[in-house]
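User: I'm curious what two different proteins look like when written out as structure tokens. Can you demonstrate?

Assistant: Sure. I'll show them one after the other, since each token string lines up with its own sequence. Here's the first protein:
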Amino acid sequence: MGSERVEMRKRQMQVHQEAAASVLQARHRMGNTPTNASNACCFCWCCCCSCSCLTVRSEDETIQRSTFERRTEGTNNCEESPKPTLEDARSWPMSFEKVMKSAAGRGCFRQFLRTEFSEENMMFWFACEELKKETNKTVVEEKVRQIYEDFISILSPKEVSLDSRVREVINRNMLEATSHTFDDAQQQIYTLMQRDSYPRYMNSTAYTDLLKSLEEPPPEP
């Protein structure tokens, strides 16, 4: 069992190192190469290496977490979330697609995810949707880099859970960033929410309380 864990850890480190190399190449082409990129051994700008420079990881992580929180502070309401109608809310148990196609549904579901400390899944999914609408190559490359740092990097407090296969796909896609760089990852997170969080939301007091509030007649003036 111990040897299996060691091998698994080695595999994870290999995936992260490949991700660092891929993103480094992409950033270099964008003219945004980190100042320490000349060190072939070290990709500390994303802390994906296993060399001795990881001694500064804790300090770097603190700085990056602080930067991330400031950056996302204004994006917590990245999508307008209108109040759902009773008819809309009653349709959500029919399918997860009903929830995700409704702006109000996404807003209510996201509030539930926040209580489960998995709001980053919806944030990542929505960021990918916005990315796919972009056609300007320069903007696409910048958004791809931002999404990677916000949701894929192992240092991010909002890192989403992806398997090694999908991470390898991202590594390859980062060599030539497009609006579909994260399609596989987005689908995996969508499936995760559908199979895991969605059933719990449908059986939660948050959803039943929402229905009750919508069924109550408005107060008389």
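Here's a second, unrelated protein for contrast:
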Amino acid sequence: MEDRAPEKQSSYTYWVREATEDVAPRPVPRKLSAADLSKQPRPAVLGSVWNQAGTWEERNLNSWASNRIKELLKSLGSLEFSSGKAYIEEVTKCSGDAFLVTVRNKKRVGYTYEVTIKFKGDWLIQKENKKIKGHLDIPEFSFGELEDLQIQVRLSGDEDLSTDDKMKICNDLRLYLAPIRKKLEVFEQELRDR
């Protein structure tokens, strides 16, 4: 009598298909030529070549954004008031971050900045023409929040001005808010289009 090992019962069945004339032939691998590659359509992928999956890529736009904000704000020119005139001398501080993020093949932009603008002006105060200098501070502004933009006015060399005169000058200078907001809206649009 022969000792046979009992046959093992498996939990699955593996089927092998027999090739017949009805079945399509198996594909034969071949090397692609440069002409074959040039015929293939190129997918429209955002981001760099190494990030073909398109999951995440961030570009730092600080240098471009700082220069562009300064350029736009310097172009404001002068503003006439009921009792005076002021003009932008220079943008003394422009600090913050701007970035372009590509997430799952979609572009998203953002920024956060603080700006200080130096101004000079002439006001008629108590029938006397006075030269006024100072700074306009925009404490913080970021993408999509330009409606909440605020300006703080700092006057320099204002010792001989009364409180009422200072208030009048500050209120006049706050009229710069609308043109500054328009320039920053232009900046936001340019940032989106990058």
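A detail about the second structure: The mean pLDDT is 84.
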